[in-house]
Specification:
There is one protein chain. The protein is 66% helix and 5% strand. The chain has a three-stranded antiparallel β-sheet with strand order 1-3-2. The longest helix is centred in the first third of the chain and has 27 residues. It is mainly α. The chain contains eight helices and three strands; from the N terminus they run βααβαααααβα. Helix 2 runs antiparallel to helix 8, helix 5 packs antiparallel against helix 6 and helix 6 runs parallel beside helix 8. The N and C termini lie far apart (49 Å).
């Protein structure tokens, strides 16, 4: 006998509202960023906002890394705390898939523009890379409290993920990879029923293991995310002419 549970992060608005909110917010943040850059006589390339011919490839690569990190977290959780099963729950049609992917992409774009562009790139020369990364990751986590996320989700999930996004932005010299990574993580959690709307599967476990899984699964996710931070931090940075980042 298995018991269905949710092991993910707090709920968000519906997909259509997500897309509108994310799209309008992305535009607003981008315009505000351009205003600040013009005022300070800085270029978009300095913040990783200048696309090039490989931006789409980096976006896809970031998404693949996001899927790998999510799959590893689920696999280790099942090995240590499970076993867990992914039980088919719905069969989303093409329109649903498109809406989910589009909404998570624009939301990820908005958050990466808001945290890993101007704030991170402005702080780094002043206080150093790692202090800037930590400050931006904490601010990223605290911002989620406004939308009703719990302290546990913020501390164990959002802040470590924000640190990973920031490290990837710096090592890849742009925002395409962290946007892809960010969106993929959210899409995978939607797929396993850990978001506000039904995904593809529901996570099921033996009832006797439910409490342990609920208590310790977030810790497994935190450890996997921090290990991913270490791996990404050891990558050689992507070189650009004049050492300027591009999207």
């Amino acid at each position: 006998m298995y018991h269905e549970i949710r092991i993910g992060i707090a709920c968000k608005p519906k997909r259509d509202a997500d897309f509108v909110w994310g799209g309008l917010s992305s535009i607003a943040v981008y315009i505000a960023t351009l205003f600040l850059l013009a005022k300070e006589q800085r270029s978009r390339r300095e913040l990783g906002l200048e696309p090039d011919g490989h931006s789409a490839v980096r976006l896809l690569l970031g998404a693949l890394i996001g899927v790998a990190v999510s799959a590893l977290s689920i696999a280790i959780t099942s090995l240590l705390l499970g076993p867990i099963r992914l039980v088919p729950s719905t069969s989303p049609d093409a329109a649903t898939w498109l809406a989910v992917i589009a909404s998570f992409l624009v939301l990820s774009c908005m958050e990466e523009l808001g945290f890993r562009a101007y704030p991170l790139r402005t702080l780094m020369p002043v206080i150093g890379v790692w202090p800037a990364q930590l400050i931006v990751a904490v601010l990223f986590g605290l911002s989620h409290l406004v939308f009703g996320w719990s302290w546990q989700n913020v501390v164990l999930g959002v802040i470590p993920s924000g640190l990973l996004f920031g490290i990837m932005a710096v090592r890849s010299n742009g925002l395409a990879m962290p946007i892809g990574l960010h969106a993929a993580l959210n899409i995978v959690y939607w797929m396993i029923g850990a978001k506000d709307s039904p995904g593809v599967w529901t996570v099921s476990v033996d009832p006797e293991r439910t409490a342990r899984l609920t208590s310790f699964a977030p810790l497994v996710g935190t450890v996997v995310t921090l290990l991913a931070c270490v791996v990404v931090a050891r990558w050689p940075p992507r070189r650009q002419e004049q050492n300027e980042p591009t999207l």
